[in-house]
From TrEMBL:
Lineage start: unclassified sequences, metagenomes, organismal metagenomes
Protein name: Uncharacterized protein
Protein species of origin: viral metagenome
SUPFAM superfamilies with a match to the protein in the record: P-loop containing nucleoside triphosphate hydrolases
Length: 325
């Protein structure tokens, strides 16, 4: 049977058996035992390489229960609720789930964490912020104020552990307070070695082996997420270069929905659109300033104060109008 990992212990135990990032062990050993001397930490790397597991291994060093204690708490704001996983030493906040009211949500979450930690005998904790790369810009603007507040707090000790796919978007004020740790991609040789070890644990009599074979047969190596994303961006570029009168709302909306369904990086999409406009000689001395301004305005407002799809629709429509005039 394939095991589902829902508890902190599961991740730790699996990592102990198959440790894909042994170099992190040296780093964990070098961390101070006193959390008051611990720096905030940023773990960054590509998706699916084990950043969360390594974060738990770091946190385990400061857990008196070795992360065996696990609980969920509920945070409520008007018309919404949010659940946080917590241990005896840390709290987990998934930034991607906070939505457009992230700033309000975070304030409530933070206050509740402070109340809990203040009531404990050991008044220290780590706040793990997952998916930091999709943080709302309003929340990012004020995040440093929370970090700074905790740095000079004499009553409780709060440290932050940010998990993200990149760090370039983070302001220097936050970067300067953190120890930045890159999680490397897992080499194919190492991955194959561990897969062979796992395969040996399955016997030929295991009835589920047939199920694995069936699942494997569904995989099409000619299709990758990258190729699908490239196709979506190409469709949008072609649509933009056509006459604005030929674009139907439903067709445009379908393409935009695909951007979100396949998790296309919007910044990369915008870059490709502008690149195609350059290659097609659609940018002139007259319209380039307007297009750059609209691009800046889009990136500033996107996923910030209204539905993300609205901003994408508006940007594509306005850009098309500009290059047609």
């Amino acid at each position: 049977m394939i095991k589902c990992y829902n508890h902190f212990e599961d991740y730790i135990q699996t990592s102990d058996v198959n440790n894909f990032h042994p170099k992190i062990d040296t780093l964990i050993d070098s961390l101070p035992n006193d959390m008051g001397n611990l720096h905030n930490i940023i773990l960054y790397g590509k998706p699916g390489i084990g950043k969360y597991t390594q974060a738990l291994r770091i946190i385990k060093k400061f857990s008196s229960s070795d992360l065996k204690y696990e609980k969920r708490i509920q945070v409520c704001v008007p018309k919404s609720e949010y659940f946080i996983k917590m241990s005896d030493i840390h709290f987990e906040v998934d930034i991607s789930l906070l939505g457009c009211n992230a700033k309000i949500f975070w304030h409530e979450i933070y206050n509740q964490i402070v109340d809990i930690v203040s009531s404990r005998p050991i008044k220290s904790c780590i706040i793990m912020c997952k998916n930091m790369h999709v943080i709302n810009s309003d929340l990012l603007d004020v995040m440093y104020s929370y970090i700074q507040r905790d740095t000079f707090n004499d009553r409780i000790c709060i440290r932050y552990l940010f998990i993200t796919e990149s760090v370039s978007f983070l302001p220097d004020t936050i970067l300067n307070t953190c120890e930045i740790i890159g999680i490397e991609n897992i080499p194919d040789k190492t991955l194959k070695k561990h897969v062979k070890q796992i395969n040996k644990s399955f016997t030929s009599n295991d009835k589920s082996n047939g199920q694995y074979a069936n699942i494997k047969s569904l995989y099409d190596p000619t299709i990758s997420q990258t190729s699908v994303q490239d196709t979506i961006i190409e469709n949008i570029c072609n649509l933009l270069l056509d006459d604005i009168e030929k674009i139907t709302f439903s067709q445009l909306r379908d393409y935009i929905y695909e951007l979100f369904i396949y998790e296309v990086d919007i910044a990369s999409c915008i870059w490709e659109i502008v690149s195609q406009l350059v290659k097609s000689n659609k940018l002139t001395e007259t319209n380039i300033e307007m297009i750059m301004y609209e691009t800046y305005k889009f990136l500033r407002l996107f996923n910030n104060n209204y539905r993300p799809i609205y901003h994408v629709e508006r940007y594509l429509y306005v850009i098309n109008k500009i290059i047609r005039n």
